[in-house]
Amino acid sequence: MESMEPLNQTHVSEFILLGLTNSKNIEFLLFALFSTIYVVTVLGNLLIVVTVFNTPSLNTPMYFLLGNLSFVDMTLASFATPKMIVNLVQKHKTISFPGCFTQIFLLHLLGGVEMVLLVSMAYDRYVAICKPLHYMTIMNKKVCVFLVMISWFLGLLHSGLQIPFVVNLPFCGPNVVDSIFCDLPLVTKLACIDTYIVQIVIVANSGMISLSCFTILLISYSLIFITVKKHSSTGQSKARSTLTAHITVVILFFGPCIFIYIWPFSNHSVDKFLAVFYTIITPILNPIIYTLRNKEMKTAMRKLWRVFVNSRVDT
Predict the structure, then answer these.
(1) Helix, strand or coil for residue 109?
(2) What's domain 5-305's architecture?
(3) Please, are residues 213 and 254 in contact by the beta-carbon 8 Å criterion?
(4) What dihedral do alpha carbons 113, 118, 119, 121 form, nearest 10°?
(5) What distances in angstroms separate CA 221 from CA 13, 127, 185, 191, 278, one per listed residue?
(6) Is a pLDDT exceeding 60 seen at residue 8?
(7) What pTM was estimated for this model as a whole?
(8) Rounded to the nearest 5°, which phi and psi values hold at 186?
C-alpha cells in the first residue's frame, strides 16, 4: 500500500521543454532553419515513396525497403519537430502529460522500426552480392513484406515494453525537461521516487538494442565488403557505391542513439543536440544520400516529374 500512495499523489499535468537556447534571436533563426529542413524532409521522403511505388523499374526488394525507410523517416521527423518549431516562437514552451508520453511512444516505435529496417536492408544487400543467383528467390515479395511487418512489430514491442514502466511513475514536480522533446531518460529523472530499476530497463532495452543492431550491421557490411573486394568489376563498383550510402545512413542514425541510451542518465549537455541530429537532420540526409548517389532513382524522379508536368499541361 505504501508503494501505491505516491502514485495517487501525481499531479503534474504538463512539462516544460527548455529547448536549445534562451536567446530570442537565435530561436527565430532556428525557427526559420528547422521549418525549412522539416518541409524539405517531408517533401523529399514523400517524393521517394511516391517514386518507388509508382515506377515499375524500381519494383525491386532494395527500393521497396528504401520506400518504407523513407516513410518511417518522414514520420520520425514529424513526431516532435512541429511542436518544437512552434515552441521556438512561444513564450511558454509546454507540452501536456499525454502529449509528452505520446512523443516518447512514437520516438521509440519509429526508432525501433528504422533499426530493423536498416538491418533488413543490410540483409538484402548481403543476398544480392553474396548470393546473386538466388537473390530473387530468397528476396521475394512475401519476404520483403514480412521484413517490413516484423520491423513494425519489433518497433511496437520495443516501445511498448518501456512505456508502462515510466507512465505509471508518480510525477509531483519538478516538470522541466532539458531538451526539445520528451524522451525516456529525461522524463524518468523527474519522477518523485527512486527510478534505478527503470533506468536498468531503459539501458537494457534501448541501449543494448541500439548497440546490438549496430554491431550486427557492422559485421554484415564487413562481410559484404570482403565479398565485393574479391570481385573487381563495374557491377561491384556500383555495389560499393550503394554500400557506402547504406553505411553512411547507419552510422549517422546509430551514433547519436548509442551515445544517448548507453549512458542515459549521465548529464551530457550535448544530448539535446544529438537529439536534434537524429530526429531532424538524419531524416533529411537519407533522401539526399539515396537520391544524389543513385542514378536509377534520379532517372525515375525525372520521368515521374515529366509525367506530372504533361498531365498538368493536358488539363
Answers:
(1) helix
(2) Up-down Bundle (1.20)
(3) yes
(4) 120
(5) 46, 12, 31, 41, 21
(6) no
(7) 0.86
(8) -70, -40
